[in-house]
Each structure stands twice: as C-alpha cells, then as structure tokens.
Amino acid sequence: MSSVESPMNGPAAPRSGFDPEPNIAAPGPSAFIACLASVGMTAAATVIAVGLDNGMTIPNVSLIFVLPVIICGLVFGLGSSLLSAVLGALSYNFFLTEPRYSLAVDDPANVWAIALLFLVGLVVSSIAHTSRRRASDAALLRRQTDLLHGYSRDMLKATDMDKTLVLTAQALASLFQVPSTVMLIDSGKIVSTKTVGGVEPQAGELDAARLSLEHGSATRAGAYPAEASRFDLWPVPSATGSSAVIGLAFEANKRPASPEFVVDIVAGLMAGAFRASGARAS
Prior knowledge:
Blueprint: E1 2-3, H1 31-55, H2 66-75, H3 78-96, H4 108-157, H5 161-176, E2 180-186, E3 189-196, H6 203-215, E4 232-236, E5 242-248, H7 260-281
Parallel strand pairs: 1-3
Antiparallel strand pairs: 2-3, 2-5, 4-5
Helix pairs in contact: 1-2, 1-3, 2-3, 2-4, 3-4, 4-5, 4-7, 5-7
C-alpha cells in the first residue's frame, strides 16, 4: 500500500500538467453565522423601515423586509432565508402596525398585510435558494468537466501502471473532495494500493474490494458485503490480467446522490489504460 502525497496530506506527487487540487472543500458558513446574519439584516431593515415611516408616507414599506430574505437565500441558504421571512413579518407587525410595539393587530387589513409579507418571504426564499443551488451545481459541473479533461490527457501520457493508479487516485479525490483509494488486483491478490486523503484501506476493506471485483458490482460503505468498509467500492475489470477497484470514503450525510456517473467515466478511462498497457506489453 502507498499514500499519494497531495495538498491534503503533504507535498504533491509529480504529475504531468494536471493539478487535481484534492483539498477537502472549505465548509460554508456555520448555522450560527447564518442565523446571526438573518437577525442583523432584518434589524437593519427594521431601522430603515421605521425611519422612512416616521419621516414620510411610503406605500408598501413592508417590502424592505424582503431584501434580507433574498440576500440570505442567495448567500446562506434556505434556512437563513426562512428565518429572515419570519423575523421580517414579526418586526413589521411589532414596529409598523397599530398598536405599535405590540404583536396585537387592531386593523384587519394589517393582518392581511403581515400574512402577505410572510408569504412573499416564503416564495422569495424558495426562489433564492433554488437559484443558489443551481449556480452551485453549474459551478461543480464545470469544475468536474475540467478535471476529467485534465485526467484524460494525463492518462494518455501515463507510461506505467503505477502512474495510472496515482493519477486516478488524485483525480477521484479532486472530483469528489473526499479521501480516495485505487487498488490494483492481479489473480485475486492486491498488488498495489494508492490513496489520497490519509484513509488507508484496512483488511476488511481489501476483502470487500476483492469481492466487488469478483462479483462485478459496486458496493456501498456499510452495506453487505462491505459492512465494515468506509469506502464505496467500484470494480474496474480488465481482460489483460490486472484489474482494479476504486474506493471513495464519503461521509455518511454528505454522499452525492449519484456519484456513479462520474465514477463510471473515470473507470472507463482507467480500463482503457489497462488495455493500452496490455497492448504495449504484447
């Protein structure tokens, strides 16, 4: 077994023009920061709305409270945006409807105004969250496409099987931002293992990898026959004698919905490298 040194656990191994950048993605804003931002922006909107209401008569001053909803939805996500919608409706009720500084409402028209403000906040927060998610998905797709292009170019230049394993482990870590492993198997024996991310396969995981290749099917971490495995495993069969198994150590609550599509592309390129290696050997 061997660990491929990378920006995740040390100096990067030599590579030919392909920078996999296999760093674990930086965490987004914490829930506390998101809530604090919601409260702060709603408070600022309240000060502005009260100031405008005291100085002049402005229709629909309640729409000022929609701004924090939009900003929080785009920057922090759905939870923060919904909190801003609730706080905005309560602030409008408390500071801008009669009787002031009370959550009681005398005018039925104000009840509808508050309810409408809350509904607008819900709709806007949903739209903002969807836009943020789509932008994030598009950025991820572009990044993965660029990484796959770089990986395919470097695979064409790989001169030996060891280099192929190193490039594949680095590419997988970059694509999914999780620890990865690639195991070379020959005649049922694991002859080489390359890892990125500091998670070395244990004996049970090596056995699960052999079973995955033998059965020709992927196995998920924690599921039969890989109950003790931390890795999701995909076989890369080859007719040249040497085959491989790809492993990705996803966190239980952060596993992508469908990693198979990208993994299948990597596995296909790797299988092509096996065939090319066999052709050169013959």
